[in-house]
């Protein structure tokens, strides 16, 4: 065969490859879609599946603003990207430790929860081994064309369109600031917890700092600032709307609520009951680790008796108070009105800087899906109507990750349940259960099961 014929053959192959539909296109490469990519990689290698995953970022990086030294993720290492679906996967956390030459050190450490920095590095390590990931690639639209999805992507080589039989949306969440505090970043040094480390030095240079929030992030930031604030003479306050500094519920029978049985039970409840339970059960997964609560108390005690500080450690812990911006006071850039949820009492609170540990929120409807809105199903409250297979369209070919809290409660954001959800999605896409899906794992019975 001549060189020109070979070149033409290669060109034809490239052209056919560019228009041949994918079986799976993933939008967003956070932990959940990264886990899906890892579980699908053996199927891609075996010619069973053709897949591509797109993300606008340059590389994997998980909450860089909260990589506080010494902090851990709140789940054991088995809640990695793949283990609970495939313990033999080369993309497990334990294999990552082995390849890094520190599996024995991790074993001797006897702490099941990986460091947060370690977990992020593990995910990045997995991402570097997968052939289906496309970074610096922003999806701008998804539309239905006959029985396929047309996905438009702005990438390093310009704008292109790919076709896929199935699409899995895993765009994650974005920092949330409640309306009563939304103007704060424009009024002075007010940073969301997502950007904390970038502004830590600037915060400590202030005369006073107030943290607002009730969860793990607020507690970690408070704990991280206590010592340096005390030695710099910076006043450090913590305000939370939650009635108490509630610890996360982490007993074993409660952990069974992250199970297929509880997902089925919760899904069968009426919408009003589900919404009520989601409010009541927030502390089960959005509280503070008990170990950290104790660490904060012990540090406060130690600082309260430490001599040689510029001034006695100045800090007030205010539980049960909601905060709202009011008119700026001349004595400080921020003046807050605090209202106690149980007594109705109000007071003012002045501070030089704010850390808004006010959580994250998933987009109600990603803008790139507007072109597919007619295909998407909604419930009576205008929320995504997600079926048991995590599809949101009648054809069961458009799937979502971590968007079903209103249907599955605390299971939706749980890292450990990601492999279970991904196993279900892969079965729906391929028609075969490549990874065994557990239907019954709990010792207890929920409802009338």
From TrEMBL:
Protein keywords: FAD, Flavoprotein, Monooxygenase, NADP, Oxidoreductase
- The organism's place on the tree of life at top rank: Bacteria
InterPro entries for the chain: FAD/NAD-bd_sf, Lys/Orn_oxygenase
UniProt GO MF annotations? L-lysine 6-monooxygenase (NADPH) activity
Top-rank EC class of the record's enzyme: oxidoreductase
TM helices/strands, residue ranges: none
Cite the EC number.
Answer: 1.14.13.59
> Pathway, according to UniProt?
Siderophore biosynthesis; mycobactin biosynthesis
Q: Which Pfam families match?
A: Lys_Orn_oxgnase
Task: Establish whether keyword Hydrolase is in the entry.
Answer: no
Reaction(s) catalysed by this chain, per the record, are: L-lysine + NADPH + O2 = N(6)-hydroxy-L-lysine + NADP(+) + H2O
Per its UniProt record, the required cofactor names are: FAD
Task: Describe the family membership recorded for this protein in Swiss-Prot or TrEMBL.
Answer: Belongs to the lysine N(6)-hydroxylase/L-ornithine N(5)-oxygenase family.
PANTHER family from the UniProt entry: L-ORNITHINE N(5)-MONOOXYGENASE, MONOOXYGENASE
- The identity of this protein, by name, is L-lysine N6-monooxygenase MbtG
Query: What species was this sequence derived from?
Result: Corynebacterium macginleyi
